Give the backbone structure.
Amino acid sequence: MRIKNHPILGERQEAKEIEIIFDGKKVKAFEGEMIASALVAAGVKTFRYTTRNNEPRGIFCAIGRCTDCVMEVDGVPNVRTCVTPVKSGMVINTQKGIGQWKGKTS
Amino acid sequence: MERENKLKTEFAVIGGGPAGLCAAIEAAKYGVEVTIIDENLKPGGQLFKQIHRFFGSEEHLAGVRGFEIGNILISDAQKYGVKVLLNNIAWGLFEDNNIGLCDTNKVSILSCKKVLVATGAIENSIAFPGWTLPNIMGAGAAQTMINVNRVLPGRKVVTVGSGNVGLIVSYQLMQAGAQVECIIEGLPEIGGYQVHASKITRMGVPILTRHTIIKAEGEKFVQKVIISQVDDNWKIIAGTEREINCDLVCIAVGLKPLIELCRMAGMKFEYLAELGGFIPVHNENMQTTIDGAYIAGDITGVEEASTAMEEGKIAGLAVAMELGKIDEKKGESELASAKNRLRALRMGPYGEFRHQAKQNLINSYYKYKNQMGA
Protein backbone atom coordinates (compact mmCIF):
# COMPACT_ATOMS: atom_id res chain seq x y z
CA MET A 1 0.00 0.00 0.00
CA ARG A 2 1.22 3.48 -0.81
CA ILE A 3 1.18 6.11 1.91
CA LYS A 4 -0.47 9.01 0.13
CA ASN A 5 -1.03 11.39 3.03
CA HIS A 6 1.32 11.59 5.97
CA PRO A 7 0.96 13.75 9.10
CA ILE A 8 4.62 14.85 8.96
CA LEU A 9 5.68 14.35 5.36
CA GLY A 10 2.47 15.63 3.79
CA GLU A 11 1.18 14.46 0.45
CA ARG A 12 3.27 12.15 -1.62
CA GLN A 13 4.78 13.94 -4.59
CA GLU A 14 3.77 11.69 -7.44
CA ALA A 15 6.41 11.09 -10.05
CA LYS A 16 5.69 9.89 -13.56
CA GLU A 17 3.89 6.55 -13.55
CA ILE A 18 5.59 3.73 -15.45
CA GLU A 19 5.14 -0.03 -15.78
CA ILE A 20 7.45 -2.85 -14.80
CA ILE A 21 6.95 -6.59 -15.37
CA PHE A 22 7.03 -8.74 -12.22
CA ASP A 23 6.89 -12.53 -12.81
CA GLY A 24 5.16 -11.89 -16.14
CA LYS A 25 2.57 -9.47 -14.77
CA LYS A 26 2.40 -5.72 -15.26
CA VAL A 27 2.97 -3.69 -12.08
CA LYS A 28 2.66 0.08 -11.71
CA ALA A 29 5.68 1.97 -10.47
CA PHE A 30 6.87 5.55 -10.15
CA GLU A 31 9.96 6.86 -11.88
CA GLY A 32 12.87 7.17 -9.44
CA GLU A 33 11.60 4.73 -6.83
CA MET A 34 13.39 1.52 -5.89
CA ILE A 35 12.23 -1.84 -7.27
CA ALA A 36 11.46 -3.07 -3.73
CA SER A 37 9.28 -0.03 -3.14
CA ALA A 38 7.14 -0.67 -6.23
CA LEU A 39 6.81 -4.36 -5.32
CA VAL A 40 5.80 -3.67 -1.70
CA ALA A 41 3.24 -1.16 -3.00
CA ALA A 42 1.85 -3.98 -5.15
CA GLY A 43 1.65 -6.26 -2.10
CA VAL A 44 4.67 -8.45 -2.93
CA LYS A 45 6.41 -9.86 0.15
CA THR A 46 8.51 -12.75 -1.20
CA PHE A 47 11.43 -11.66 -3.36
CA ARG A 48 13.37 -14.92 -3.72
CA TYR A 49 13.63 -18.57 -2.60
CA THR A 50 16.76 -20.02 -1.02
CA THR A 51 19.03 -22.52 -2.79
CA ARG A 52 18.90 -25.54 -0.47
CA ASN A 53 15.55 -25.45 1.27
CA ASN A 54 13.53 -23.33 -1.14
CA GLU A 55 12.47 -21.01 1.70
CA PRO A 56 10.95 -17.61 0.94
CA ARG A 57 12.91 -14.44 1.69
CA GLY A 58 11.94 -10.77 1.59
CA ILE A 59 13.27 -7.40 2.63
CA PHE A 60 15.49 -7.34 5.70
CA CYS A 61 17.68 -4.18 5.79
CA ALA A 62 16.26 -2.08 2.92
CA ILE A 63 19.56 -0.17 2.58
CA GLY A 64 21.55 -2.47 0.32
CA ARG A 65 23.63 -4.28 2.92
CA CYS A 66 22.05 -7.69 3.63
CA THR A 67 21.23 -8.96 0.08
CA ASP A 68 18.07 -10.72 1.28
CA CYS A 69 15.94 -8.90 -1.34
CA VAL A 70 17.97 -9.83 -4.43
CA MET A 71 16.07 -10.74 -7.61
CA GLU A 72 16.63 -11.30 -11.31
CA VAL A 73 16.40 -7.92 -13.00
CA ASP A 74 16.53 -7.72 -16.80
CA GLY A 75 18.25 -11.09 -16.91
CA VAL A 76 20.84 -10.30 -14.24
CA PRO A 77 20.55 -12.28 -10.98
CA ASN A 78 21.40 -11.06 -7.47
CA VAL A 79 20.36 -7.45 -8.02
CA ARG A 80 19.68 -5.65 -4.72
CA THR A 81 16.14 -4.45 -5.33
CA CYS A 82 16.05 -2.10 -2.33
CA VAL A 83 18.76 0.15 -3.83
CA THR A 84 18.09 -0.30 -7.55
CA PRO A 85 15.65 2.16 -9.15
CA VAL A 86 12.93 1.00 -11.52
CA LYS A 87 13.02 1.65 -15.26
CA SER A 88 10.09 1.57 -17.62
CA GLY A 89 9.58 -1.95 -18.97
CA MET A 90 12.06 -3.50 -16.54
CA VAL A 91 11.60 -7.28 -16.22
CA ILE A 92 11.83 -8.49 -12.62
CA ASN A 93 11.58 -12.15 -11.63
CA THR A 94 11.45 -13.87 -8.25
CA GLN A 95 14.88 -15.45 -7.87
CA LYS A 96 15.28 -19.18 -7.25
CA GLY A 97 18.53 -20.01 -5.47
CA ILE A 98 21.47 -18.21 -7.04
CA GLY A 99 19.35 -17.29 -10.04
CA GLN A 100 19.97 -17.50 -13.75
CA TRP A 101 22.12 -15.23 -15.88
CA LYS A 102 20.37 -14.16 -19.08
CA GLY A 103 21.93 -10.75 -19.38
CA LYS A 104 24.65 -9.39 -21.59
CA THR A 105 28.24 -9.89 -20.48
CA SER A 106 29.79 -6.55 -21.29
CA MET B 1 34.45 -3.30 -17.07
CA GLU B 2 36.51 -0.25 -17.84
CA ARG B 3 39.37 0.83 -15.69
CA GLU B 4 39.98 4.47 -15.07
CA ASN B 5 43.31 6.10 -14.32
CA LYS B 6 44.01 7.12 -10.80
CA LEU B 7 41.69 9.80 -9.44
CA LYS B 8 42.97 12.30 -6.88
CA THR B 9 41.51 14.31 -4.04
CA GLU B 10 42.87 15.97 -0.91
CA PHE B 11 40.33 14.53 1.53
CA ALA B 12 38.22 11.49 0.66
CA VAL B 13 35.14 10.82 2.74
CA ILE B 14 33.67 7.32 2.46
CA GLY B 15 29.98 7.52 3.28
CA GLY B 16 27.75 10.57 2.83
CA GLY B 17 25.66 10.20 5.98
CA PRO B 18 25.54 12.74 8.83
CA ALA B 19 29.15 12.08 9.94
CA GLY B 20 30.62 12.14 6.44
CA LEU B 21 28.69 15.23 5.34
CA CYS B 22 29.67 17.18 8.46
CA ALA B 23 33.33 16.23 8.11
CA ALA B 24 33.29 17.22 4.45
CA ILE B 25 31.58 20.56 5.11
CA GLU B 26 33.90 21.42 7.99
CA ALA B 27 37.07 20.67 6.02
CA ALA B 28 35.78 22.36 2.85
CA LYS B 29 34.96 25.52 4.85
CA TYR B 30 38.71 25.98 5.37
CA GLY B 31 39.62 25.32 1.76
CA VAL B 32 40.30 21.56 1.79
CA GLU B 33 39.39 19.92 -1.51
CA VAL B 34 36.91 17.18 -0.49
CA THR B 35 35.30 14.25 -2.31
CA ILE B 36 32.50 12.23 -0.73
CA ILE B 37 31.99 8.69 -2.00
CA ASP B 38 28.57 7.15 -1.52
CA GLU B 39 27.05 4.05 -3.06
CA ASN B 40 23.54 5.48 -2.99
CA LEU B 41 21.88 7.76 -5.52
CA LYS B 42 21.54 10.54 -2.96
CA PRO B 43 23.72 11.49 0.03
CA GLY B 44 22.26 11.86 3.53
CA GLY B 45 22.63 8.31 4.81
CA GLN B 46 19.85 7.41 7.22
CA LEU B 47 18.82 11.04 7.89
CA PHE B 48 16.01 10.99 5.33
CA LYS B 49 14.10 8.26 7.13
CA GLN B 50 14.28 10.10 10.44
CA ILE B 51 11.15 12.21 10.55
CA HIS B 52 11.22 12.90 14.29
CA ARG B 53 12.64 16.00 15.92
CA PHE B 54 16.21 15.71 17.20
CA PHE B 55 17.23 16.14 20.84
CA GLY B 56 20.04 18.15 22.41
CA SER B 57 20.28 21.91 22.37
CA GLU B 58 19.96 24.51 19.65
CA GLU B 59 23.57 24.05 18.55
CA HIS B 60 22.82 20.34 17.98
CA LEU B 61 19.87 21.35 15.77
CA ALA B 62 17.43 20.10 18.41
CA GLY B 63 13.80 20.39 17.38
CA VAL B 64 14.68 19.98 13.71
CA ARG B 65 13.56 16.77 12.00
CA GLY B 66 16.16 14.36 10.61
CA PHE B 67 15.20 14.75 6.95
CA GLU B 68 15.33 18.53 7.29
CA ILE B 69 18.86 18.23 8.69
CA GLY B 70 19.69 16.07 5.66
CA ASN B 71 18.59 18.87 3.33
CA ILE B 72 20.56 21.48 5.31
CA LEU B 73 23.75 19.40 5.16
CA ILE B 74 23.43 18.68 1.44
CA SER B 75 22.95 22.36 0.67
CA ASP B 76 25.93 23.30 2.91
CA ALA B 77 28.10 20.73 1.15
CA GLN B 78 27.15 22.28 -2.19
CA LYS B 79 27.82 25.77 -0.85
CA TYR B 80 31.38 24.87 0.15
CA GLY B 81 32.12 23.03 -3.08
CA VAL B 82 32.26 19.47 -1.75
CA LYS B 83 32.38 16.99 -4.64
CA VAL B 84 30.02 14.04 -4.26
CA LEU B 85 30.67 10.84 -6.16
CA LEU B 86 27.39 8.91 -6.01
CA ASN B 87 26.59 5.37 -7.13
CA ASN B 88 30.15 4.40 -6.21
CA ILE B 89 31.02 1.53 -3.90
CA ALA B 90 34.27 1.83 -1.94
CA TRP B 91 35.44 -1.78 -2.08
CA GLY B 92 38.95 -1.42 -0.77
CA LEU B 93 41.20 0.71 1.44
CA PHE B 94 44.83 0.09 0.61
CA GLU B 95 48.29 1.29 1.57
CA ASP B 96 48.83 5.06 1.51
CA ASN B 97 45.05 5.44 1.75
CA ASN B 98 44.31 4.48 -1.85
CA ILE B 99 40.62 3.70 -2.21
CA GLY B 100 39.18 1.14 -4.62
CA LEU B 101 35.93 2.31 -6.23
CA CYS B 102 33.47 0.91 -8.68
CA ASP B 103 30.23 2.01 -10.21
CA THR B 104 28.08 -0.04 -12.58
CA ASN B 105 30.64 -0.10 -15.38
CA LYS B 106 34.02 1.09 -14.21
CA VAL B 107 36.63 0.43 -11.59
CA SER B 108 38.92 3.18 -10.37
CA ILE B 109 41.43 4.01 -7.67
CA LEU B 110 41.10 7.25 -5.73
CA SER B 111 44.24 8.51 -4.01
CA CYS B 112 44.07 11.09 -1.27
CA LYS B 113 46.10 12.78 1.45
CA LYS B 114 43.51 12.05 4.17
CA VAL B 115 40.60 9.66 4.32
CA LEU B 116 37.57 9.42 6.59
CA VAL B 117 35.71 6.12 6.89
CA ALA B 118 32.13 6.97 7.86
CA THR B 119 30.33 3.84 6.71
CA GLY B 120 27.82 3.66 9.55
CA ALA B 121 26.26 0.50 10.89
CA ILE B 122 23.92 -2.37 10.01
CA GLU B 123 20.97 -3.65 12.02
CA ASN B 124 21.32 -6.79 14.14
CA SER B 125 18.82 -9.57 14.16
CA ILE B 126 17.96 -12.33 16.58
CA ALA B 127 17.38 -15.93 15.59
CA PHE B 128 14.16 -17.75 16.49
CA PRO B 129 12.23 -20.37 14.51
CA GLY B 130 10.70 -18.60 11.54
CA TRP B 131 12.91 -15.51 11.77
CA THR B 132 13.79 -15.62 8.07
CA LEU B 133 10.16 -15.34 6.89
CA PRO B 134 9.38 -12.42 4.61
CA ASN B 135 8.10 -9.34 6.46
CA ILE B 136 10.28 -9.99 9.47
CA MET B 137 12.70 -7.13 8.99
CA GLY B 138 14.93 -4.65 10.70
CA ALA B 139 12.99 -1.81 12.30
CA GLY B 140 15.19 0.58 10.32
CA ALA B 141 14.19 -1.25 7.15
CA ALA B 142 10.51 -0.72 7.90
CA GLN B 143 11.35 2.93 8.61
CA THR B 144 13.03 3.27 5.21
CA MET B 145 10.03 1.69 3.49
CA ILE B 146 7.46 4.00 5.13
CA ASN B 147 9.33 7.32 5.33
CA VAL B 148 11.61 7.25 2.29
CA ASN B 149 9.77 4.95 -0.12
CA ARG B 150 6.34 5.88 1.22
CA VAL B 151 5.00 2.31 1.11
CA LEU B 152 3.58 0.32 4.01
CA PRO B 153 5.02 -3.22 4.19
CA GLY B 154 2.44 -4.48 6.74
CA ARG B 155 -0.63 -3.37 8.67
CA LYS B 156 -0.44 -5.29 11.94
CA VAL B 157 2.96 -4.93 13.57
CA VAL B 158 4.86 -6.57 16.42
CA THR B 159 8.12 -4.84 17.37
CA VAL B 160 10.92 -6.69 19.14
CA GLY B 161 13.08 -4.36 21.25
CA SER B 162 12.14 -1.21 23.16
CA GLY B 163 15.24 0.89 22.59
CA ASN B 164 14.82 4.25 20.86
CA VAL B 165 14.78 2.66 17.40
CA GLY B 166 12.01 0.21 18.37
CA LEU B 167 9.95 2.96 20.01
CA ILE B 168 10.40 5.59 17.31
CA VAL B 169 9.78 3.23 14.40
CA SER B 170 6.66 1.78 16.06
CA TYR B 171 5.29 5.29 16.46
CA GLN B 172 6.17 6.19 12.88
CA LEU B 173 4.46 3.01 11.62
CA MET B 174 1.30 4.26 13.30
CA GLN B 175 1.77 7.66 11.66
CA ALA B 176 2.00 5.78 8.36
CA GLY B 177 -1.33 4.04 8.99
CA ALA B 178 -0.32 0.70 10.53
CA GLN B 179 -1.59 -0.79 13.77
CA VAL B 180 1.07 -1.79 16.30
CA GLU B 181 -0.04 -4.78 18.38
CA CYS B 182 2.73 -4.55 20.96
CA ILE B 183 6.41 -3.91 21.57
CA ILE B 184 8.20 -6.69 23.42
CA GLU B 185 11.35 -6.28 25.51
CA GLY B 186 13.38 -8.99 27.26
CA LEU B 187 14.71 -6.73 30.01
CA PRO B 188 12.62 -5.63 33.01
CA GLU B 189 12.86 -1.97 31.88
CA ILE B 190 12.05 -0.11 28.65
CA GLY B 191 15.32 0.55 26.82
CA GLY B 192 14.67 3.92 25.17
CA TYR B 193 13.81 7.42 26.34
CA GLN B 194 10.66 7.85 28.40
CA VAL B 195 9.42 10.56 26.04
CA HIS B 196 9.31 8.09 23.13
CA ALA B 197 7.80 5.31 25.28
CA SER B 198 5.03 7.63 26.50
CA LYS B 199 4.01 8.44 22.93
CA ILE B 200 3.54 4.70 22.36
CA THR B 201 1.59 3.99 25.54
CA ARG B 202 -0.61 7.05 24.98
CA MET B 203 -1.68 5.42 21.71
CA GLY B 204 -2.78 2.38 23.72
CA VAL B 205 0.05 0.13 22.55
CA PRO B 206 1.42 -2.14 25.29
CA ILE B 207 5.18 -2.32 25.85
CA LEU B 208 5.65 -5.82 27.28
CA THR B 209 8.85 -5.98 29.32
CA ARG B 210 10.32 -9.38 30.37
CA HIS B 211 8.93 -10.86 27.15
CA THR B 212 10.54 -12.71 24.28
CA ILE B 213 9.54 -13.99 20.87
CA ILE B 214 9.45 -17.79 20.74
CA LYS B 215 8.64 -18.28 17.08
CA ALA B 216 7.08 -16.82 13.97
CA GLU B 217 4.77 -18.69 11.64
CA GLY B 218 3.30 -18.17 8.22
CA GLU B 219 3.19 -19.91 4.90
CA LYS B 220 4.69 -17.35 2.54
CA PHE B 221 5.29 -14.52 4.99
CA VAL B 222 4.84 -13.94 8.71
CA GLN B 223 1.22 -14.29 9.85
CA LYS B 224 1.61 -14.74 13.58
CA VAL B 225 4.15 -14.81 16.38
CA ILE B 226 4.20 -16.67 19.68
CA ILE B 227 5.52 -14.60 22.57
CA SER B 228 5.99 -15.41 26.24
CA GLN B 229 7.19 -13.98 29.51
CA VAL B 230 10.77 -14.62 30.64
CA ASP B 231 12.25 -14.76 34.12
CA ASP B 232 15.36 -12.95 35.39
CA ASN B 233 17.55 -15.50 33.62
CA TRP B 234 15.77 -15.00 30.28
CA LYS B 235 14.13 -18.44 30.65
CA ILE B 236 10.66 -18.80 29.15
CA ILE B 237 7.98 -19.05 31.85
CA ALA B 238 5.82 -22.02 30.86
CA GLY B 239 2.13 -21.29 30.49
CA THR B 240 2.63 -17.61 29.59
CA GLU B 241 2.84 -18.22 25.83
CA ARG B 242 0.40 -16.38 23.63
CA GLU B 243 -0.27 -15.95 19.96
CA ILE B 244 -0.44 -12.60 18.19
CA ASN B 245 -1.65 -12.26 14.63
CA CYS B 246 0.47 -9.85 12.60
CA ASP B 247 1.86 -9.36 9.10
CA LEU B 248 5.03 -7.42 9.97
CA VAL B 249 7.64 -8.02 12.68
CA CYS B 250 10.19 -5.25 13.27
CA ILE B 251 13.44 -6.32 14.87
CA ALA B 252 15.04 -3.50 16.86
CA VAL B 253 17.86 -5.15 18.76
CA GLY B 254 20.74 -2.82 18.07
CA LEU B 255 23.22 -2.23 15.28
CA LYS B 256 26.81 -3.09 14.58
CA PRO B 257 29.48 -0.93 12.97
CA LEU B 258 30.36 -1.56 9.29
CA ILE B 259 34.09 -2.03 9.69
CA GLU B 260 35.15 -4.00 6.59
CA LEU B 261 37.28 -1.23 5.08
CA CYS B 262 38.99 -0.55 8.41
CA ARG B 263 39.82 -4.26 8.78
CA MET B 264 41.20 -4.27 5.27
CA ALA B 265 43.40 -1.27 6.03
CA GLY B 266 44.79 -3.05 9.11
CA MET B 267 43.54 -0.70 11.79
CA LYS B 268 43.78 -1.71 15.43
CA PHE B 269 40.43 -2.73 16.96
CA GLU B 270 38.82 -3.07 20.35
CA TYR B 271 35.69 -5.06 21.23
CA LEU B 272 33.16 -2.94 23.12
CA ALA B 273 29.75 -4.61 23.45
CA GLU B 274 28.14 -1.38 24.70
CA LEU B 275 29.07 0.36 21.43
CA GLY B 276 27.99 -2.45 19.13
CA GLY B 277 31.02 -4.74 18.71
CA PHE B 278 34.47 -4.41 17.13
CA ILE B 279 35.45 -0.79 16.69
CA PRO B 280 38.66 0.79 15.37
CA VAL B 281 40.48 2.59 18.18
CA HIS B 282 40.97 6.31 17.60
CA ASN B 283 42.25 9.41 19.37
CA GLU B 284 40.17 12.42 20.47
CA ASN B 285 40.47 13.86 16.93
CA MET B 286 39.05 10.66 15.38
CA GLN B 287 42.47 9.66 13.94
CA THR B 288 42.87 5.85 13.73
CA THR B 289 46.06 3.80 14.03
CA ILE B 290 46.61 4.18 10.26
CA ASP B 291 48.28 7.47 9.34
CA GLY B 292 45.92 9.91 7.70
CA ALA B 293 42.86 7.68 8.18
CA TYR B 294 40.01 8.93 10.35
CA ILE B 295 36.64 7.51 11.39
CA ALA B 296 33.40 9.16 12.55
CA GLY B 297 29.78 8.28 13.25
CA ASP B 298 28.27 4.87 13.97
CA ILE B 299 31.43 3.05 12.85
CA THR B 300 33.12 4.42 15.99
CA GLY B 301 30.37 2.99 18.21
CA VAL B 302 26.64 2.99 17.53
CA GLU B 303 25.03 6.19 18.82
CA GLU B 304 22.83 8.77 17.15
CA ALA B 305 23.00 11.12 14.19
CA SER B 306 23.65 14.06 16.56
CA THR B 307 26.86 12.52 17.90
CA ALA B 308 27.83 11.38 14.40
CA MET B 309 27.62 14.97 13.17
CA GLU B 310 29.86 16.30 15.95
CA GLU B 311 32.41 13.52 15.41
CA GLY B 312 32.37 14.35 11.71
CA LYS B 313 33.05 18.01 12.44
CA ILE B 314 35.96 17.05 14.70
CA ALA B 315 37.49 14.84 12.00
CA GLY B 316 36.97 17.55 9.36
CA LEU B 317 38.66 20.17 11.54
CA ALA B 318 41.54 17.83 12.40
CA VAL B 319 42.09 17.16 8.69
CA ALA B 320 42.02 20.89 7.85
CA MET B 321 44.62 21.48 10.59
CA GLU B 322 46.85 18.60 9.48
CA LEU B 323 46.79 19.94 5.95
CA GLY B 324 47.73 23.40 7.22
CA LYS B 325 44.52 25.03 5.98
CA ILE B 326 43.53 26.52 9.30
CA ASP B 327 45.69 28.34 11.81
CA GLU B 328 46.47 26.29 14.85
CA LYS B 329 44.89 28.61 17.40
CA LYS B 330 41.62 28.91 15.53
CA GLY B 331 41.62 25.16 14.84
CA GLU B 332 42.21 24.27 18.48
CA SER B 333 39.42 26.55 19.62
CA GLU B 334 36.96 25.14 17.05
CA LEU B 335 37.95 21.60 18.04
CA ALA B 336 37.41 22.42 21.72
CA SER B 337 33.88 23.69 21.03
CA ALA B 338 33.01 20.61 18.98
CA LYS B 339 34.31 18.37 21.78
CA ASN B 340 32.22 20.27 24.32
CA ARG B 341 29.11 19.85 22.19
CA LEU B 342 29.86 16.15 21.88
CA ARG B 343 30.34 15.81 25.65
CA ALA B 344 26.97 17.50 26.20
CA LEU B 345 25.33 14.75 24.12
CA ARG B 346 26.93 12.05 26.26
CA MET B 347 25.59 12.97 29.67
CA GLY B 348 22.89 11.56 31.90
CA PRO B 349 21.83 7.96 32.41
CA TYR B 350 21.98 7.13 28.67
CA GLY B 351 25.05 9.14 27.79
CA GLU B 352 27.56 8.68 30.57
CA PHE B 353 28.34 5.01 29.85
CA ARG B 354 28.84 5.84 26.17
CA HIS B 355 31.25 8.58 27.17
CA GLN B 356 33.15 6.08 29.31
CA ALA B 357 33.26 3.50 26.49
CA LYS B 358 34.54 6.13 24.06
CA GLN B 359 37.24 7.10 26.56
CA ASN B 360 38.32 3.45 26.61
CA LEU B 361 38.73 3.53 22.83
CA ILE B 362 40.91 6.63 23.09
CA ASN B 363 43.00 5.04 25.88
CA SER B 364 43.49 1.95 23.71
CA TYR B 365 44.69 4.13 20.86
CA TYR B 366 47.42 5.69 23.03
CA LYS B 367 48.36 2.34 24.56
CA TYR B 368 48.82 0.93 21.08
CA LYS B 369 50.78 3.97 19.90
CA ASN B 370 53.09 3.72 22.93
CA GLN B 371 53.68 0.02 22.27
CA MET B 372 54.63 0.88 18.72
CA GLY B 373 57.01 3.49 20.10
CA ALA B 374 55.33 6.28 18.18
